[in-house]
Amino acid sequence: SIAILLYLARKFKTPDHWYPTDLQKRARVDEYLSWQHVNIRGKGSKLFLTKVLLPLLTGQPPPPEKLEGVTEELNIVLKQFEEKFLQDKPFIAGSEISLADLVALVELMQPVGAGYNLFEERPKLAEWRRQVEEAVGKQLFQEAHEGILNAKNL
Predict the structure, then answer these.
(1) Which residue ranges does the record assign to the GST C-terminal domain (predicted)?
(2) What is the pLDDT along the chain (154 residues), one digit of tens a residue?
(3) What does the H/E/C string look like for 6-57?
């Protein structure tokens, strides 16, 4: 949860870039963390549920119109994310990775795990993902997402 991440960042005095002391950068992180619940998380999870979990539970493929609708909802928030949060910066809060970037990419990996490559036609988003992975470490990133990336094989 967001509350736990913020608690850990404060308790263990993590490097400043994770949850910046600079008020403008921190406000950017807080803004994203507040926005993402019903947007990136909400729409990404909905696509994952529709495309992976519901067919697993019902034994039926999702209705095409339902899948199209949830995909369009996700595409709208991805556009907002690029325009409002990434803009022309490498990371959400500026030139360094923060908890906002980490949370964002983790949430976006659910639709990817469902087989929807949302980075394919979005070069800005793909470059941001590459930078986040690089900052975290590619091996750690892959280990952390191994389960979700194999979910479509259930």
Answers:
(1) 22-154
(2) 899 999 999 999 999 999 999 999 999 999 999 999 999 999 999 999 999 999 999 999 999 999 999 999 999 999 999 999 999 999 999 999 999 999 999 999 999 999 999 999 999 999 999 999 999 999 999 999 998 888 867 6
(3) HHHHHHCCCCCCCCCCCHHHHHHHHHHHHHCHHHHHHHHHHHHHHHHHHHHH
The domain locations on the chain are 24-150
The answer to whether residues 109 and 147 touch, using CB atoms and an 8 Å cutoff, is no
For 71, other C-beta atoms within 10 Å of its C-beta total: 19
- Put simply, whether the predicted model's pTM sits higher than 0.85 gets the answer yes
Q: How many CB atoms lie within 10 A of CB 5?
A: 16
Spell out the residues 6+ positions from residue 27 whose beta carbon is closer than 8 angstroms to its own: none
Q: Which CATH architecture has domain 24-150?
A: Up-down Bundle (1.20)
**Rounded alpha-carbon distances, angstroms, from residue 83 to 53, 92, 120, 148:** 30, 11, 17, 27
Question: What is the DSSP code (8-state) at residue 139?
Answer: H
Q: State the DSSP H helix or E strand holding residue 64, giving kind and residue range, or none if neither.
A: helix 64-80
